[in-house]
Amino acid sequence: AASIFSVSSLFSDHIVLQQKEKVAIWGKAVSGEQVKISGSWGSEATATADKNGKWLAKLSTPSAGGPYQLNITSTKKEIQIDNVLIGEVWLASGQSNMEMPLKGWPPNDPIANSAQEIANANYPSIRVFDVPNIFSTKEENSVKGAWEVCSSQVAGKYNFSASAYFFARRLHQELNVPIGIINATW
């Protein structure tokens, strides 16, 4: 039973959760099992796994801040998610213009000053979750991936969207809150 208990991969270390909301958190457990979600900022929520083993709870979040911790527990297992920030979360989605990485597609499609932008991309309050390009004909409850803290190493990866990066950086600078970007481009 303990091996069935899980949370969607969208919920991993370094996640940014939307501020001042009831944020949905979901996963799997044994049918009928109760799941408790606790945020170290003082909020708690519970859910019961349905007949298919799916559970979903809505956890209240405070104003922007962190880092915090999430604890998701069942009767036999605990999942701990560390370095959680609360801020603004955005979805970056689209085709090639949104998908183009910060380093560009040289030599024909460069990004101006990309090497300098990548070298200076150290923003620990900006986090990115890259959704892999996997085709599916059915609704998916989870995707592979993990949240990453924005650094020059992360920004230099082939899949860090330039549009998403510049958008996140501008929001972070103007709002002075953590920014989470879910990159679902193809």
Please supply descriptive tags for the structure shown above.
186 residues; alpha/beta; three-stranded antiparallel beta sheet; 40% strand
Descriptive overview:
β7 and β8 form a beta hairpin. The protein has helices at 96-99, 114-119, 152-155, 162-175; strands at residues 6-7, 16-18, 22-28, 34-39, 44-48, 54-60, 65-73, 78-94, 123-130, 147-150, 179-185. The protein has 186 residues and is of the alpha/beta class. The chain is globular and about 55 Å long. The strands form two sheets. Strands 2, 4, 5, 7, 8, 9, 10 and 11 form an eight-stranded mixed β-sheet that branches. The chain has four helices and eleven strands; from the N terminus they run ββββββββααββααβ.
List the helices and strands and how they pair.
Elements: E1 6-7, E2 16-18, E3 22-28, E4 34-39, E5 44-48, E6 54-60, E7 65-73, E8 78-94, H1 96-99, H2 114-119, E9 123-130, E10 147-150, H3 152-155, H4 162-175, E11 179-185
Parallel strand pairs: 2-8, 8-11, 9-11
Antiparallel strand pairs: 1-3, 3-6, 4-5, 4-7, 7-8, 9-10
